[in-house]
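Anyone up for a design puzzle?
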């Protein structure tokens, strides 16, 4: 395949994430809608944790079956490091951000309170969650881009096209997952904010496609998948806390189930393609 075609395929796969982002601009969503959006996001992201970890563990599992202990050790250590940085790293990062936010909220003198009120809305908890979701999904999508690039590099055009369809559908649901915390809190992000979140979440698919065209490496893929799994798992924990505060257990349960089913449905095309 030509470089132009590969570039186009990577762009299409990555930027379908924008299909789900505009829902974040809903005005004054009802409490039940807020809870539903949050729960669907939990379902989608829970599926992604399973999907990411299964792909990350696959090369290690194959090496175990072949008794290739060096590969098992390096792959297992890479996955463990990625998970640790992605999960524990975000815990410490969030604690640091919270301390800075609290320090900024304390009046330090005349006019300080007014300045705090003018702080950007992107510093809110919902905005931070949306950014973390976009980052975790971006790491995951980089690995997806590697798969597209690898297929294109081998001249497997039909496989590459099927991957584009599957990953494109998947990214569309992921865009919904990114903005769900904002919609659930009634925050209406600007179009510029949505553009930025989309670049963080979808852009790595495009970059991964270009890298995968020239580089095929299991260790690199495991590292990014481990980071993605850890960061997405952290966000799921945070969203579950939001769901508990909402107190709508039945609605939350059904919407989490809906999110899981959406994840499996969009991933089915990728599985059919042999990825």
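Challenge accepted. My sequence:
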């Amino acid at each position: 395949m030509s470089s132009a075609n590969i570039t186009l395929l990577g762009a299409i796969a990555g930027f379908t994430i924008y299909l789900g982002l505009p829902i974040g601009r809903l005005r004054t969503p009802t409490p039940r809608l807020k809870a539903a959006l949050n729960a669907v996001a939990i379902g989608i992201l829970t599926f992604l944790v399973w999907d990411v970890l299964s792909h990350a563990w696959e090369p290690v599992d194959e090496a175990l079956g072949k008794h290739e202990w060096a590969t098992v050790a390096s792959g297992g250590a890479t996955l463990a490091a990625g998970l640790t940085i992605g999960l524990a790293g975000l815990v410490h990062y969030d604690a640091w951000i919270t301390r800075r936010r609290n320090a900024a909220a304390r009046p330090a003198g005349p006019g300080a309170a007014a300045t705090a009120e003018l702080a950007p809305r992107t510093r809110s908890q919902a905005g931070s969650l949306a950014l973390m979701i976009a980052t975790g999904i971006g790491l995951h999508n980089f690995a997806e881009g590697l798969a597209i690039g690898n297929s294109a590099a081998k001249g497997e055009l039909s496989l590459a096209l099927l991957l584009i369809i599957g990953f494109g559908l998947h990214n569309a649901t992921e865009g919904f997952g990114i903005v769900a915390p904002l919609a659930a809190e009634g925050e209406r992000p600007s179009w510029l904010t949505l553009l930025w979140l989309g670049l963080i979440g979808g852009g790595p698919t495009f970059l991964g496609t270009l890298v995968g065209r020239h580089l095929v490496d299991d260790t690199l893929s495991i590292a990014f998948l481990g980071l993605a799994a850890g960061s997405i798992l952290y966000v799921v924990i945070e969203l579950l806390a939001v769901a508990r505060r909402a107190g709508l257990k039945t609605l939350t349960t059904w919407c989490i189930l809906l999110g899981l089913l959406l994840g499996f449905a969009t991933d089915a095309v990728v599985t059919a393609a042999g990825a």
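A detail worth pointing out: The chain has nine helices and no strands.
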